[in-house]
């Protein structure tokens, strides 16, 4: 069974966050990981497009009760009608969680993943969480770039030789 990686981030993402999310999706797909996301625009739509560009599978777990507003790059859409409670489904379905940028929704997913324990939790940019002593909370990896985020999530290097006709790995 392939590894499942949740990629979380804001629906209101600028060009840089979208670029990073697209690259994370592409790299995860190259490693045969299934991407799970919130299924809408911004980071979620960019990670879906990146994974699909490399032939990957992307599951969108929507907060709404229907498929309205779902990102076009999704392989499957799961409308939940649960609002932000769907964040728990996204995190619990994942073998690792990557959070790109920050919003209150993505911070809730980060907290749920951290609380769940036993899985890699990686941040690429965004707000930092500190303990009462002012130290960064332990157990959250902080990535420098998309390759580092995927490496930390999967636990191994992400450099693969090109195999496709268009240089896709």
TrEMBL record:
It comes from the Bacteria. GO terms for cellular component: cytosol. It holds the Pfam family LDcluster4. SUPFAM superfamilies: MCP/YpsA-like. This is TIGR00725 family protein. It comes from Allonocardiopsis opalescens.
């Amino acid at each position: 069974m392939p590894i499942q990686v949740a990629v979380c981030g804001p629906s209101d993402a600028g060009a840089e966050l979208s670029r990073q999310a697209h690259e994370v999706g592409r790299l995860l797909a190259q490693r045969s990981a299934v991407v799970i996301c919130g299924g809408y625009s911004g980071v979620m739509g960019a990670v879906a497009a990146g994974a699909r560009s490399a032939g990957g599978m992307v599951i969108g777990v929507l907060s709404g009760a229907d498929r309205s507003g779902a990102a076009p790059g999704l392989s499957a859409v799961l409308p939940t009608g649960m609002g932000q409670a769907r964040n728990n489904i996204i995190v619990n379905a994942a073998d690792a969680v990557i959070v790109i940028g920050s919003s209150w929704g993505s911070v809730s997913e980060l907290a749920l993943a951290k609380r769940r324990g036993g899985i890699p939790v990686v941040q690429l940019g965004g707000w930092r969480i500190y303990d009462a002593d002012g130290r960064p909370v332990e157990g959250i990896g902080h990535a420098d770039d998309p390759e580092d985020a995927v490496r930390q999530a999967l636990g191994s290097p992400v450099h693969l030789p090109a195999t496709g006709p268009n240089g896709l790995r």
